[in-house]
Amino acid sequence: MKMYQTTQPIEKYLNIPLECSCGRTHFAPIKAIRVSSGAISLLPDYMKQYGYSHPYLLSDRITYDIAGYRCEAILQQAGFSPFTRILTHMAYDEATLGEIVLNKPDDCDVMIGIGTGQITDMLRFASFKLGLPCFTVPTAAPMDGFSASVGIMNVDHLKATMPAHASEVILGDTDVLKGAPMRMTLAGFGDLVGKYNALNDWRLGRIVNGEHYCEKIATMVEDYVTGVTEDADRIRDKDPETIGGILNALLLTGATVSLYGTSRAISGAEHHMSHYWEVLGDERGKPFAMHGEQVAVATVLALSVVEKLKDRAIDFNRARAAAQRYDSDTWAAQIRLAYGEAAEAILALEEKAQKNAPEGRLKRIDAMEEKWPEIRSLLETVIPAGQLRELLRSLGCPCDPRDIGVTPEILKDTFLYCKETRTIFTVYQMAWDLDLMDEISDEIIRFLKQENRI
Ligand SMILES: [Zn+2]
Ligand SMILES: [Zn+2]
Known about the structure:
The protein is α/β, with parallel strands linked by helices. The chain has 18 helices and ten strands. The strands form three sheets. It has a six-stranded parallel β-sheet, with helices on both faces. It has a two-stranded antiparallel ribbon with strand order 1-2. Helix 2 links the parallel strand 4 and strand 5. The chain is globular.
């Protein structure tokens, strides 16, 4: 089947290969997504439809009380005998995986996870390891990982990207979701607004690096995020339709990782900032904030960099001189200071990618000079930082570094070094290539200090 010309409801993208004019075939191995009032009651129907008879339910104490007991009762009423495990281990690690595997009934033919992040991610790892299908029932919508097919887990005390199953069926019951803590819903919204910058980064990659790009996927992500942003003032009223819309958009954006094959459409410089804060948070043993909250703050900052670049007269020869001056040993010393224990992994990544090496950088500078009018008009189309900040602020979502405990010193390091957590091209790589990141970040931090926002 051909990829659709215009953005469609989420169901249309699931479990069907879509041949696209971008040259790729898009496929998301999710069989069904339902976000609606009473969606949980569809569990037995989906069990029967896909031929499963022995469900293994996973929740924790809290999510069992929120929705686990109802899933259990609904399945029992339909004639199933679900086995429920209320998990006592709750971390992204071997112990939790062990508890899930150890308690699995021998006759289980489908696993059903009820909760957010931790439970649903661990469910997908276990489901993959055991070779069993899984369903997910989200109890809140704080991030876009529900529809993913990989995940991050601690293995030997180190974070590793591990293969995981995508959920076959995801049932978002808006009667459950509207009861979720407002902070979680706002974090989900924060993860969504990050896509404004992520899409801009992808488009910059297309212009500067000739990177592969799919306009249909980019537009689809943009349409879903814009739809939710337009309705955002109803989040505070816990309007079930709006909260369902957020989950729906998070599921769709998460599914683009399968559809496109990478997270290019949904993760850029704003996620790199959040990753960097995660590294610092791990070191001090306390996270700055929830993932989506960090992404919200980071998006306002990344969009500020976009604005600074857009309004500048660029000196491309200065950029070339900086590229020629680059010394990888000095850079490595800076990375060791900024990343501490995580530095070796970052150095190894750059060793392979060589994205900072003069040769590639000079090529990109040539491309930027040649295409600056095109780049500039792209930057004109991105939502202004101030407008997004005002929206987040009005909802009560963190929007300034101060809101999540990021100090001027940390922010300076974040601007300079966060791009090293991944190898994709972003607006931060662009500012760095042009020898402007130091200057621009100083200007932004000075402004934030004046405004008492840091
Ligand atoms: Zn495509
Ligand atoms: Zn995210």
